[in-house]
Amino acid sequence: MSGPVLHVDGGRSVRFNTHGLILLAVCVSSALGANTLVLVDTLATRETHSIFLKSLQERGHEVSVKAADDPSLQLSRYGEYIYQNLVILAPGVEEFGGALSVETIVEFIDGGGSVLVAGSREAADLIRELVTEAGVEMDEEGAAVIDHLHYDANDDGQHTLIAAPSTGLIDSEVMVGPRDAVPLLYRGTGLITDAENPLVLPVLRAPSTAYCYNPTQPISDYPHATGQNMLLVAALQARNNARVVVSGSLEFFSDAFIMTSVQTPQGAFYERSGNGKVVEALSQWVFMEEGVLRVASVEHHLVGETHPPVAYTIKQDVEYKIKVERLVDGVWKPFLANDLQMEFVRIDPFVRLTMTPHSNGVFSVKFQVPDVYGVYQFKVEYNRVGFTRLFSTTQVSVRPFTHVQYERFIECAYPYYASAFSMMIGVFLFSLVFLHHKESPSKSKTE
């Protein structure tokens, strides 16, 4: 079966088959922007969260909104991922539709995909199981975050509409934007993480006076999550730099919470909550639009030269340069920092130095090769909150001096030189005396 015909300039025509058109459409879609799949409980979520979804579209995302139980759901096709980002705004889903499951989402994260999950106090077991895979545990079903000191005046009396102070935000402008004094509205369940897990980041901590419990039941035992040990929003940056954000509140991303005013019990009034700025910055971070670093080039050579040698020799002076770029508004720009270090490693680091930054994004350092030969690596590893993990290694060989490179005379050996020459002179004098000395004739006759 022949495919459609595309007419081009000059009267020529090119015939495509159906599979070629599908591949072309996928390539064009990937070139225009990231494909983002948004799963919702009901399609009404498109209206209640329209500001958040519109911001994604304005930033170039190809947003596809589908029901979480849609039987046509799939993340990959022909071994390639269709979407780069996954947003789950469906805390009540009991089972994903189509080929989607917790296992496939975990594989999607392992493949470098970005995931944003919003829960609630009535989140289903499926969502709880999913966030557990990201190192986050939601409190028991029905439990809500309660704070009798930090709540909004529009609360229904249960004090579950939390006006969380912005001081609870993580100290990373890359992740949550510039911090101001405007509180954030939150209504949902509490999150618990392992404090010793270095991959999980506390994006928004609960106030110290908050606790998580079912507001319709009397408190009979100590709450599972209390104070600043409880998180409202958590994030995970995996070792492959894949990012996951988990919120215990679906309403945190809603139009109502973004546009509404905030009035605290202490009488402070804010015309608009801080949710809008935080949601915007956090979505940019989780979808790899902010905080992304890459190594553009690496150079190493002897001081005064421009090309690397086949192998370095011990005690030579070496210059190392690495160019690092940061993604800003879709454009790679020079990255500036004053804490980027280089290590010259064999098994353990022999040299560790902080590199000098330059305005073009190049970091450089000069050092002397250690007096130990072997196989070394130039290693740069940069881990900072909010940024992707930067890792670069370059292997080189270090050899000892050749026989023509050693010093011919060293001061500490002068006594040995003197003894050797004195012995040579003594042997020479002894030889002269032995060869030219003759015994007297009278002595020989007497004998």
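[next item in queue]
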Amino acid sequence: MVILEEFLNDAFKGFCNFYTAHCVSVSVVGPSRFTNLQMGNPLNPSYMPEILSRYSSEMSFFQRLVNTFSIFFGVINFYWSILPKHNEILQKNFPGSPPITELFYRTSLMLLNSHVSVSSPVPLVPNMIEIGGFHLNTPKELPRDLQNYLDEAENGVIYFSMGGNLRGNDMEESKRKAIIKVFSQLKQRVLLKWDNDTLPRQPDNVKLGKWLPQQDILAHPKIKLFVTHGGLLSVIEAIYHGVPVVGIPVFGDQEMNMAVAEADGYGKLLRFSDLTEEAFRAALTEVLNNDRYRENAIRRSRIMHDQPMKPLDKAMYWIEYVLRHNGAPHLRTSALNLRWFQVLCLDVVLFAAITMFATIFAIYKAIVITCRRRPTKSKLKNKPKKNN
């Protein structure tokens, strides 16, 4: 077996063919057009947002229109541009390999970093398995200084981390000042992931840390709010511990993740381009003072915890299942044996349309011919009478 990360690295499937091994992919995100295409899973733009979009599954007509064209042109670009380039890499490094268009569909198992507690429910073929939260660990004891800082917070703590995507020093000064000014006006303590040991005009209620044990911090009962970039792992960790979020997405799937969080009622989306002192204060105030955000986060947390086995155990079960059943070809959908237009039944629709048109046309011609042959009343009147 060869286990690959699934993210625009399709040439790596040459390893599976080279070793004559079963191919298992682990997607760092949930179902997307990349995973759905190779597994034969339905790809419906009416309720499946493009991974780089700003939409949740609940879209207006205009959003569905934009989403449909985004997915349509994304699929065309993938097949006409991206996949051929991967085929060049494949043939260069694995001479004599089957074309990438063949290896692309040989994945035995797709493990998805998603779960209905944090992702919109969508149909999945049997060899696509959700293991969202597989990276979660049992909370460990915090360092003494952090433990005391959280324990002694009478009004709770706000945890702020933009992960490794946006360093504090790289942030525009106006936005950095806006964030710090809002924090200085809060009654809550703030735990701020920061790249430097010092922060200009650092408020008394703000504690810095270059690296912070995020999962263990979110597990602390004094955490009232998580300000995040909206990365999927961070959102999963927040929901696991029932913590509402304010998301400031930077790139990738982060905006879509926060759109889902906002639609599900446990988060507030604030685009980085819209980040001002007033907007940031309004977002924090809304989530901190409206109990529905925490209630929804706790409800989602219960959904995430209510599983028959841990996500990592589920992943191991299905990996071993594929080995036990020699690649588990019985899980493979027959859609992979059809051309794209056959999957969409376009050939059937075309045949039905032609047949219907031909039938209507034939009936029309028959009526026309019949009417031409049938004598009209005027002709009957003018017909000369025979003399006896």
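[queue empty]
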